[in-house]
Amino acid sequence: DIITVTYSSLKTLLHDIKGMGEGNVLSERSKNYVGREFWNNVEQVYKDHFADDNGKIVASFELIYMIGWAPDESQQKPLRPGQATERLAEQLGTHEITTGIKTGVDIS
Questions:
Q1: What percent helix, strand, coil does the chain show, rounded to 5?
Q2: Strand extents, DSSP E, the chain
Q3: CA distance 45 to 48
Q4: Model's pTM, two decimal places?
Q5: What b-and-e string marks burial along 3-37, b requiring 16 or more CB atoms within 10 Å of the CB?
Q6: Quick check: 67 and 88 in contact, CB under 8 A?
Q7: Per-residue pLDDT reduced to its tens digit, 10-41
Q8: Confidence of residue 106 (pLDDT cuts 50, 70, 90)
């Protein structure tokens, strides 16, 4: 997902970036303080290139979702296809909408 956010200043954008843990993690980066003039110039360049009609800074963040799973002996084992005794819609208390695709499995 791509989320677009507007900021009134570079400082608020950098605050959010830091809060997300997305700061500069390069091990070889300079640890020296660059000064206020540097950050004022960065903000001006950012506004020149990435500002909306109201002069607010526009930033986009891409969210990537991941999930991990590994089998374990303590987990419940799934039934083999065709061994179900109830429909999922019944368990969820909802109405089943068929796709018209034949699966070869009928538990009714």
A1: 30, 10, 60
A2: 2-7, 57-62
A3: 5
A4: 0.54
A5: eeeebeebeebeeeeeeeeeeeeeeeeeeeeeeee
A6: no
A7: 999 989 988 888 877 666 777 788 889 999 99
A8: low
Match 């796709």 to its residue by tokens.
99
- Amino acid letter, 57: I
User: pLDDT by residue (tens digit) across 42-92?
Assistant: 999 999 998 999 989 999 999 999 998 888 899 888 888 888 888 888 889
Residue 88 CA to residue 96 CA, distance in Å, equals 8
The phi and psi torsions of 99 (rounded to 5 degrees) equal -95, -15
